[in-house]
Amino acid sequence: MAITVEAVPCLEDNYIWLLRGPRGEVAICDPGEAGPAIAAVEKAGGQLDMIFITHHHGDHVAGVAEVKRRFPGAKVVGNKADAHRLPPLDLAVSPGDTVGFGGSAAAVIDCPGHTRGEISYHFADGAVVLCGDTLFSLGCGRLIEGTAEEMFRSLRALAALPPETLVCCGHEYTESNARFALTVEPDNAALRARAEEAKAQRAAGRPTVPTTIAQELAANPFLRAPDVATFARIRAAKDNFR
Ligand code: ZN
Ligand code: FE
Q1: Which pLDDT belongs to residue 1?
Q2: CA atoms of 18 and 109, how far apart (whole Å)
């Protein structure tokens, strides 16, 4: 267990991820709001080593500047290709690169679809992936800048990670995603069980994430789509779902 993760709620339904390494190293991912991020870091020991960014949307980066002012030693990590619209980066990375944290290496995975420059970070050691708004539990990000083909490929890359990998996504959307997913696969037992579980978790005031790649492969219709045409059809239906 090299890296551990914790979901820190912020804004309406966003999650900042708090990561801890074996020797007290601390990182956060996507601080859409500074207050909760700073409080979580203080609680974790008051030292911050890194700030990972998955994409440029405000609900993922708006807190970066203030967090960096509070913890000036923290290195801000993001996609070099999107540097022009991200907060100033200390470490500009590209898909295929690895970033060291807590004695392990995170692989940078290209995940265009939601935005053109979106990336995920996969820590093989702790079996963790930080995937922003690409993969959600029982859903996936909206195609704001990318095509269905790009998103399909991005999801495929995440689906290929080890099944036990913890999926640390950017939003608490599981219950509303479940309502749509059940219209696509009403007879999927894993999906029905997951929908019940999410309902109970929310009723108890707990996050429904992280989920795992295995669980999403069993229950998430977007990850289960066999081809890009099917994926595109499901994505379009979700966009029009009320
Ligand atoms: Zn976004
Ligand atoms: Fe978002």
Answers
A1: 56
A2: 20
DSSP class of residue 118?
-
208, 201 contact by CB (below 8 A): yes
Provide the token pair at 25: 């190293």
Instruction: Kindly report the backbone phi and psi dihedral angles of residue 207, in degrees, each rounded to the nearest multiple of 5, phi listed first.
Output: -65, 150
Mark the ranges of the chain whose per-residue pLDDT is less than 70: 1
DSSP, collapsed to helix, strand or coil, labels residue 121 as strand
- Give the 3-state secondary structure percentages of the chain, helix then strand then coil, rounded to 5: 35, 25, 40
Tell me, yes or no, if 55 is annotated catalytic.
Answer: yes
Amino acid, res. 98: T
Q: Which CATH class is domain 4-239?
A: alpha beta
Domain extents in the chain: 4-239
> Interhelix angle for 189-203 vs 174-184, to 10°?
160
Number of Cβ within a 10 Å radius of residue 152? 22
Distance from Cα 23 to the centre of ligand 2, integer Å? 30
Per the structure block, which two tokens stand in for 57?
């949307």
Active site residue 122: no
Task: Using the Cα atoms of residue 36, residue 128, residue 116 and residue 156 in order, give the sign of their dihedral.
Answer: negative
Please tell me the distance between residue 43's alpha carbon and the centre of ligand 1 in angstroms: 27
Q: Among all ligands shown, which has an atom nearest to the Cα of 14?
A: 2
Q: How far apart are CA 186 and CA 30, in angstroms?
A: 33
Q: Are 74 and 83 in contact (CB under 8 A)?
A: no
Cα gap 182→12, rounded to integer Å: 24
Helix (H, G, I), strand (E, B) or coil at 47: coil
